[in-house]
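Hi P.,

Sorry for the delay on this. The queue was packed all week, but I finally got your sequence through. Input first:
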Amino acid sequence: MKKLLLVLVSLFMLVVAAPAVAAPTPIVIDVTFNADGSATITSSQGISNFTVTLCSGPLDKVELPVGSDERTITVGPFDEDIVSIRVKSGTQTSTFTNPDADCEPGEEIPESPLSILLPLSVIGSLAIVGTLLWRRRGEQL
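Then the structure:
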């Protein structure tokens, strides 16, 4: 009788404790990059923080208030493309990269060659020296 009672209690504890020990539900985080330069972050749990990286570099990390249950956030639009977004939700951190980000530099302006700069600097130097000598000559008269 005691063995039967012990087996029943053990089975009851196993049935009650099993759901508590089961694997936690995975957190699903997703980022959608929009054509207007913004992005929408969605998560199955509250978002803790996120960092947006633009072509010019990362922006400051945005910390959401403790206990916040924000599950959808839209960031932007920005004047330049979003390169990536790092999102933390619960204990999971994910980074999403924008495949359409265009961070190519603008059209480069070539430097002037020495054949132009050297004569101009000589002319400028002679003009300064000539002006100083002309002023000094005027003081002596």
